[in-house]
Amino acid sequence: MRRREALSLLAGSALLSRPVVGHPTPVGTPGDGTPRTREDTYGPVGRVEVDGATETVVTPDGATAFVAATDGYAVVDLSSPSDPTVVAERRDLLADRENGPLGGIYDVKHAGDTLLVVGPANPGQSELAGALVVDVSNPEKPRQRAFYETDYPIHNAYLDGDTAYLTANGGERRRLAIVDVADEPTKIGEWELTEYDDAWTDVPPFPRVIHDVYVQDDVAYLAHWDAGTWLLDVSDTAAPAVISHIGRDAETVADEFESGADSYDALPGNAHYAAVDEAGDLLAVGSEAWATEELPEGGPGGIDLYDISTPTEPQSLATIDPPPTPDATHDGSWTTAHNFEFRDGILYSSWYRGGVKRHDVSDPVEPTELTWWADRPHAEFWTARVGVPGSTFVASSRATVDSPAALYVFPDGDGETTWGFGNDPDLATPSPTSAETPTPTETAAEGPGFGPLAALAGVGVGALAWLCERP
């Protein structure tokens, strides 16, 4: 009954045209302890705190969200959009293991009755690494079914039916691992760029990391950082085959890193996340990038659109630019592209402090911005995901200095409210507001041997920051 009432409430344009007052966002002077409230002409209809929130996925019916939460995961009931509710939460996963618990959980994926929970995202966040397989046939009572332990961290993953695709970046290797999780998890295949083309061995491991993977209709899309985006035929999971590549060749990447024309943090490159529309004809590749002292034009990164109707010959169409920022460096105000999703000709995207957006990409040569909501001091969005098409979408926000991490529910309609981007004079040029993170040296020291290893390898501060903080 709750779901039927919620969908009825969301029908039509009334929700989109009236001020949103259900869960006003607190704003005010950072740290003053007495935030005022506001009413947005467009804004979230609901919000629930989820400590440590990072990636979020939503069930096909839009009724349930699963949220990666750094030291575990949470299950959120979305059936009442104005009152999203955490109905299950699991922390300190596998704490009974000798090297547990599993930590650094930045990604979850869902298919059918299965939830895949992976970590740690980065070296040094957890001694235990692997993919936890959870039965969520009853979302309010998730049940651990199996665990696939690895000797590498898992930053991101994808679950296609009973097949898990894992980013396997360990030691000198940067590869895609493919695991059958139907019963006892079993490795069934892998793919590695340097085995496909040994010219890539001239590029250091960090810039050719596999950051994320997306799979649809037997094609895997690998966001391979400075090695670009790779399309793989995975119809035979034991023997993935290259379809095409978007990006620079190995010699160019190696030369530009050696010359200083490229860096780990700055553009060009930085293929961070890739996804396709339902037809598999339109590909979006997001670049997570920051400006540096040497490369002030190196960030923030946007989202590039490609026609892949002929997958062997990708064609560049357009670029969606990132929101403006007074300081695009890693220590500044992040507005670079992060995770996103296509649905019914709309691209739903997240931009950290740059907020969340919706773009009409029915004409991908000229994408049109429909929606932009941002609250720079209080929200730092990791992802945007469709809830009920035409009614809601959701976005998870990391904690900032002024507000806790949370899952937001937005109307799936047009509008704009951008606090901190010109319509609020108190917030027009804010100072950085993210919760402080350990310095690269401190964080690296937590991982056995990482400080000395990095020093021996001649890795700079930027690379260490990537290892330890890369979202």
Provide a descriptive summary of the structure in words.
By secondary structure, the chain is mainly beta. The chain folds into two domains: 2-219 and 229-274 and 375-441, Methylamine Dehydrogenase, Chain H, CATH 2.130.10; 442-471, no CATH class. It has seven helices and 29 strands. Strand 3 and strand 4 (72-77) form a beta hairpin. The protein is globular and about 55 Å long. The model is unreliable at 1-38 and 424-469 (pLDDT under 50).
SS summary, helix count: 7
List how many beta strands DSSP finds.
29
- Main-sheet strand order equals 22-23-24-25-29
The largest β sheet comes out as: 5 strands, mixed
